[in-house]
Backbone:
């Protein structure tokens, strides 16, 4: 298959696919789902592709004829794109833009018509053909770009913009390449028909699936993408210009042409590499893109994500304030900054990032006019603003020490609700130091978020300190509770000493009691010093309950013990479990009159030992049971207790895998149930 046949089939295939697109658009036009100019453009493209295909089958078109149909094709698409642009914006297009674009293709048609009638031989020049198509492709791409940027609500227009943009970009590549070598590349020209056909197929699918009014879009070019695509476009255009210059230099440069062409290409590559390496040039290009290609200066989604990501990084208590300064400085491209926070009656330097300050760092009174302006008006001070601008209205309130900071740019308040937590000072960035309403809005929003971040850290520090005091107080309460029980034992010995001092049995019992108290106090001290871990042993509950009853014999009513089973053993610290059960029984004695009863029952259920303590004492109210019973420092003993025993009991029993349950009725009595996991004998 020769080249003409390949070209024929490429363009005839593209024409067929464009004919299908035309029929689809006619159907949508009848449903009032598209504009007739799109139908016209698709129809003209169909005719263009079929005519080119016919030319390669019968050789009936001259280069001038080809230029006419190429111009008509571009004219149809430019008209359709401008109509779609008007529909997308919902308003009339600027007259200079509208008439300027239309005058270009109209002028091209008029000039081609005049040349065809007066000097047809000129139209057979390939240079005119290449230049005319290149310029019209560039104009078409400019229109597509405007449509893409403004078609925010219709996915079909976004799709058409991308497809047509690809078509016209390919045309620019084709004719730029042809311009360099002064001849149209046959392979690129052959592929053009197939590429148009694929584009028609994509637009047909889009027309069928995305033509409903509700088919909105969220596709958009991000700022980084715009920056790099703009950079690549500029670089590509620059290289194309340099290559074109090199080509003509080779034609007319004589013997020095190769040397000069090499030097030019080297300089071009150097300039492009400099663009991508130099931070200053990239920053200037980024600022230019923000000013001319975007409605807003900031990509707020990106800025907000950067802020949250920076403030969410884990940090210790020493550097979270420095993180706040660096975060704010990085968002606004400031090289240096400092944070002043409230401390008693003044604002003191809390963190500094490369900021030049005297030693010691100056402070500012919280009631100064400067601080009141920060708090009451959420004022952002900008000393570099023009004297006639609104931002300079309160600059006279700036303290002298702040005004003397080198390269001072901004003073940003850090507000939490209505309180001024502090302020951050930033120095002037290298580029784009002008302050707009967007900067002010973002500064105030970021300032409040940073203030919330600092306030949260401060609250966390206070909470940690409070927890340390709480742990200390809880420990003290436990110690005092145990000491109270030991003092009660020894007080009873002292109370009976005068009466029974001559009784050898009493003396022996007193010695045993004191010995037991000393041993328990030594154990308590060792545990407080964390020199000795809790002792876990296998305990026989029968023997343990007998010991519990013994320790509760000094107070009435005397507890009675009932065993539903025997031989139950558990793993626990003997002293802790003994004191826990003694505490439950003594609480029952305190709540029960002398003629009442206290029953201690030992039973089992599955793999648990069940120890129940039941009395017919005064009981407790349901409100106390629901809201206070298991909480520390809550008691019903009216000054006789600390309210720590039940909490300590529950904590210890749960630590060995057991549970504590209680039932009580005011005026009737209380029933404790302790479940402890057993071990096999």
Residues:
């Amino acid at each position: 298959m020769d080249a003409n046949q390949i070209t024929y089939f490429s363009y005839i295939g593209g024409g067929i696919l464009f004919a299908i697109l035309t029929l689809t658009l006619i159907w949508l036009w009848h449903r009032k789902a598209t504009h007739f100019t799109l139908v016209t453009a698709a129809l003209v493209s169909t005719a263009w592709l079929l005519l080119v295909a016919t030319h390669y089958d019968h050789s009936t078109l001259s280069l001038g004829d080809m230029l006419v149909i190429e111009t008509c094709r571009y004219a149809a698409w430019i008209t359709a794109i401008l109509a779609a642009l008007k529909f997308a914006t919902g308003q009339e297009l600027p007259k200079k833009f509208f008439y300027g674009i239309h005058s270009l293709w109209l002028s091209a048609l008029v000039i081609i018509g005049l040349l065809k009638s007066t000097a047809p031989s000129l139209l057979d020049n390939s240079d005119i053909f290449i230049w005319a198509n290149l310029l019209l492709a560039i104009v078409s791409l400019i229109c597509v770009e405007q449509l893409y940027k403004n078609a925010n609500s219709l996915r079909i227009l976004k799709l058409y913009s991308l497809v047509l943009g690809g078509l016209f970009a390919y045309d620019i590549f084709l004719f730029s390449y042809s311009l360099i070598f002064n001849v149209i590349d046959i392979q690129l020209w052959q592929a053009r028909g197939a590429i148009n056909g694929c584009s028609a197929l994509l637009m047909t699918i889009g027309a069928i699936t995305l033509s409903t009014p509700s088919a909105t879009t969220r596709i958009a070019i991000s700022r980084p993408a715009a920056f790099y695509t703009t950079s690549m476009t500029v670089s590509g255009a620059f290289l194309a210009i340099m290559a074109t210059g090199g080509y003509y230099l080779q034609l007319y440069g004589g013997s020095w042409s190769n040397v000069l062409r090499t030097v030019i290409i080297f300089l071009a590559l150097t300039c492009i590499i400099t663009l991508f390496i130099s931070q200053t040039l990239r920053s200037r290009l980024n600022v230019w893109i923000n000013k001319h290609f975007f409605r807003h200066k900031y990509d707020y989604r990106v800025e907000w994500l950067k802020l949250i990501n920076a403030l969410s990084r884990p940090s210790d208590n020493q550097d979270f304030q420095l993180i706040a300064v660096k975060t704010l400085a990085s968002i606004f491209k400031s090289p240096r900054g400092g944070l002043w926070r409230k401390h008693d009656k003044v604002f003191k330097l809390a963190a500094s990032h490369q900021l030049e300050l005297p030693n010691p760092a100056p402070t500012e009174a919280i009631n100064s006019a400067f601080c009141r302006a920060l708090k009451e008006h959420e004022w952002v001070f900008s000393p570099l603003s023009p004297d006639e601008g609104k931002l300079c209205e309160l600059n006279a309130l700036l303290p002298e020490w702040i005004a003397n900071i080198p390269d001072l740019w901004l003073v940003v308040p850090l507000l939490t609700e209505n309180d001024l937590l502090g302020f951050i000072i930033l120095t002037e960035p290298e580029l784009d130091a002008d302050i707009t309403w967007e900067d002010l809005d973002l500064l105030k929003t970021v300032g409040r978020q940073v203030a919330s971040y600092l306030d949260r850290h401060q609250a966390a520090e206070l909470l940690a300190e409070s927890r340390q005091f709480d742990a200390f107080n809880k420990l003290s309460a436990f110690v005092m509770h145990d000491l109270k029980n030991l003092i009660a034992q020894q007080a009873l010995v002292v109370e009976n000493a005068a009466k029974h001092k001559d009784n050898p049995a009493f003396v022996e019992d007193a010695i045993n009691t004191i010995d037991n108290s000393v041993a328990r106090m030594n154990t308590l001290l060792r545990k407080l010093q964390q020199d000795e871990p809790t002792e876990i042993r296998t305990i026989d509950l029968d023997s343990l309950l007998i010991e519990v009853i013994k320790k509760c014999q000094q107070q009435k009513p005397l507890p009675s013990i009932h065993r539903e089973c025997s031989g139950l053993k558990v793993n626990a610290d003997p002293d802790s479990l003994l004191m826990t059960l003694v505490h439950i029984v003594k609480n029952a004695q305190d709540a029960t009159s002398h003629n009442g009863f206290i029953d201690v029952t030992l039973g089992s259920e599955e793999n648990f030992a069940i120890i129940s303590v039941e009395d017919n004492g005064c009981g407790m109210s349901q409100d106390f049971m629901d809201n206070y019973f298991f909480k520390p420092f809550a008691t019903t003993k009216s000054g006789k207790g600390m309210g720590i025993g039940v909490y300590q009991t529950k904590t210890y029993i749960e630590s060995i895998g057991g549970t504590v349950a209680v039932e009580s009725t005011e005026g009737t009595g209380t029933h404790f149930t302790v479940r402890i996991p057993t071990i096999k004998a």
Remarks:
- The chain has four domains: 3-219, 221-295, 300-456, 534-679.
